[in-house]
Write a structure and sequence with these properties.
Number of strands: 0
Radius of gyration: 48 Å
Largest sheet: none
Shape: rod-shaped
Structural class: mainly alpha
Order of helices and strands: HHH
Helix content: over 70%
């Protein structure tokens, strides 16, 4: 008799079942180990990404602060230039007021000297001087306001240009 035939068939089935179950248990054990390794790798990756995000955010904050400092500095410089321009404009306005006073004085003097001229000639001469004096005064006022507006605009434009130039990435 053969040793293999001495073992009943149900034992062979039991042995096969134990081998298959053992193989499955081994596969489960290996899969759990792989899953634990993958979880560890995922945790490391998440830490790495979080650290990279923190560094990027810190760099962005630093760049924003640098740009804000540049903008503040240029704004202060523009404010000082505007104050200087306003002072110069006030001085020019004062000088213009003096010229307007001189024009008024000359106009009044011309009226006084023209008393001896005939009424018709005096009327024509007076109206010419009055018109020219008025035109000169008005053009002087307009030139002053245009110069002040132009100076403000120039200072603001230069300040904006400087901010853009200095905030570009080095």
């Amino acid at each position: 008799m053969n040793l293999l035939s001495a073992v009943p068939a149900w034992c062979w089935w039991l042995i096969a079942l134990v081998l298959v179950a053992g193989g499955q248990q081994y596969r489960v054990f290996v899969a759990k180990g792989d899953a634990a390794f993958a979880r560890g790798e995922l945790a490391d990756y998440r830490l790495e990404v979080a650290e990279r995000d923190r560094r990027v955010a810190a760099r962005a904050r630093t760049e924003e602060q640098r740009r804000q400092a540049v903008a503040d500095e240029e704004g202060e410089s523009a404010r000082q230039q505007l104050e200087l321009a306003q002072g110069r404009a006030a001085g020019a306005e004062s000088a213009a007021d003096g010229l307007r006073g001189e024009i008024a004085r000359l106009r009044d003097g011309h009226r006084a000297t023209c008393d001896t001229i005939s009424a018709q000639q005096r009327q024509a001469g007076t109206s010419t001087i009055v018109v020219l004096g008025g035109l000169l005064e008005e053009s002087d006022r307009m030139a002053g306001s245009c110069a002040a507006a132009l100076e403000r605009s120039r200072i603001a434009g230069l300040a904006c240009e400087a901010v853009v130039d200095r905030t570009k990435a080095p």
